[in-house]
Amino acid sequence: MAAPAAVLLPFPRPSVDDGVSVLPGLYVPEASQWLSTSSGRIASDGYSWMQAVHWVAGSGLYKPRRHRSHGPRAFGPTTVFIAQLLSELSPCRPGIEYLMRRTGLTKRAVQNHLQILRETGLLAYIVKGTRQRGGPSLASEFALMLPPAFDAALGIRTAGEGTERRMTGIAEAGRELMAQLAAKAARKVRRPRLTTSSRTVTKGARKGAAEASVTAVSAGSCCTPMGDGADGSSTAGATPIPSESKLASGKRESSTPKESKAKAGGRRTLNRVGRRFQLARELTQELDWLRGCAIARIAWVARNVADAGWTVTDVRAWLHLRGEAARVRRGSGLLAVLLSNAVTVLDTPAKRAEAVARWRAAQEAARRDRIQQVRAQRERFEGDWQAPTSRAVTRQVAQAMAYVHEAANGGRHEGQAPVADNRCEDVGLADPQIDQMRAQAWGELMRGVTDLIDLAVDSMGRDAAEQLYGTDLMRRARQLASAARSSHMTITHR
Asked: How confident is the model over 144-154, as pLDDT tens digits?
């Protein structure tokens, strides 16, 4: 009888399914945070790296307060969000300003979260950023790393040496956890709210809230799942169905958002600072001597009257009472001086209304005076009156017009009838009447008008007019008349 053939069985390979003891803490010293000194392995892509990020966030092995007393207390949702931003970069060379703009954090907070990722072995320096004198700062370049604790916890088998190791298999006990991490890594993490938590919350409650927020944000269905490892459940089953009481009338409530009642007429109610800037803007538009001034400075100068409820009309009425300067060198300084005691003097709405009424009356009187001046000028230049040809008559007309001008200006012959005189030489040059006529002629000459001198020349002759008004005044009148006839000069009245 032949002996039974020996059965050759393969030598059992040592199994790693029994679980590997995990280190009580996860921390990488600063000397091992470089790619050349790191004990981890480089992630093949950002998706695989985000699986390790979610594992570190949910494991609770990393506690930053063991190593320093400031900064974040745990590996929270903000760190996961920053890691998601880093996984989208190739090469991973993020600038601090870029992360500050995407996260809304301060520079110090961004640096703290990057330090957390390095201390957990998820990041390693390839090139550390530097600052050059006179030039821009250079950003650091990182390598996305998978820490050894992640491979040990999930039973991942690797092949190769150093940081170039690659995954060749995984234990049965770690497959379920790997599927959960894949589902979390496939979903986009939303930007967490920047809220200030109370200091009275216990450490355990804070830690549980942080872990719950990471799981809830990553496991939610806020975005379309990516890849085949995502959860295949549909979000249509979570759509709420209206109750029968709301559909009994056959009408469904409109989903259009109602307009907010807080904004009357769609305009925002201004606060105290807004009223200051509004008054400053109106003042720079109404007052010519405030044109070009900074609105912020005018708002600061007029802050007292703006807080008291003054309008631009009230301010203009007060400036009319105080008196405005003809020449202004610094508009904001003059406004500060004029408004120094405005709130104290016009402390009631009734006083402000009375000041406004006076200002409007003065404006109306000035408008009527301008109308009368325009009418008189038109009647004078566009009328049908012609100068007389007789020298005696023109002399009497000139004398009568001189008396009329003097009486209109409140001279000493006001209310007196003119006296006919056929000779101008009888009146001495030292007579106050002659001085007043010369002053009036000088005033009209300054405004570009030479009617009195022309009338005297036409009526009395050039020699008598020069004896009456003086050589200098006659010379200036002739220069002005010749300039007015030139096509290269235009003379207007102000």
From this structure: 999 999 999 99
Neighbouring-strand partners of residue 143: 124
CA-closest candidate to residue 83, choices 92, 72, 73: 92
Report the alpha-carbon distance of residue 419 to residue 409 in Å, rounded: 18
Paired with 146 in beta bridges are 41
pLDDT tens digits along 335-350: 999 998 899 999 999 9
Check if the beta carbon of residue 77 is closer than 8 Å to that of residue 192.
yes
Give the C-alpha separation, 434 to 470, whole Å: 11
Given this model, what pLDDT does residue 441 score? 82
Look at the block and give the residue holding tokens 């020699």: 463
For 47, the token pair is 């998706």
User: What's at 394, amino acid-wise?
Assistant: T
Residue 272: what are its φ and ψ, rounded to 5°? -65, -45
Q: 170 has which bridge partners?
A: 156
In a 10 Å sphere around its CB, with 0-12 CB exposed, 13-18 middle and 19+ buried, how is residue 99 labelled?
Answer: buried
Asked if residue 14 has a cis previous peptide bond (ω within 30° of 0), the answer is no
| Cβ–Cβ < 8 Å for 131, 137 | yes
Q: Does pLDDT of 360 surpass 70?
A: yes
Residue 216 in this model has a pLDDT that exceeds 70: no
- Strands 141-146 and 123-127, how do they pair? antiparallel
Q: For residues 226 and 245, what is the distance between their CA atoms, to the nearest angstrom?
A: 40
Q: How far apart are CA 142 and CA 123, in angstroms?
A: 6
Quote the CA–CA distance of 142 and 46 in Å, as a whole number.
Answer: 13
Q: Phi, psi (5° rounding) for residue 463? A: -65, -45
> In whole angstroms, what is the distance from residue 469 CA to residue 434 CA?
8
What are the counts of helices (DSSP H) followed by strands (DSSP E) for the chain?
Answer: 20, 5
* Residue 276 · residue 302 · CB < 8 Å: yes
Q: Confirm if 418 and 400 have CB atoms less than 8 A apart.
A: yes
Q: How far apart are CA 360 and CA 320, in angstroms?
A: 10
Question: CA dihedral defined by 330, 331, 334, 336, rounded to 10 degrees?
Answer: -120
88, two tokens: 């989208």
283/297 Cα distance (integer angstroms): 12
Report whether 178 contacts 50 (CB < 8 A).
no
Which of 205, 154, 148 has its CA nearest to residue 181? 154
pTM score of the predicted model: 0.39
Nearest one of 408, 466, 400 to 438, comparing CA atoms: 466
Can you give the three-state secondary structure of 73-127, one letter per residue?
Answer: CCCCHHHHHHHHHHHCCCCECCCHHHHHHHHCCCHHHHHHHHHHHHHCCCEEEEE
Give the separation between CA 75 and CA 444, rounded to whole angstroms: 88
CB atoms within 10 A of CB 255: 5
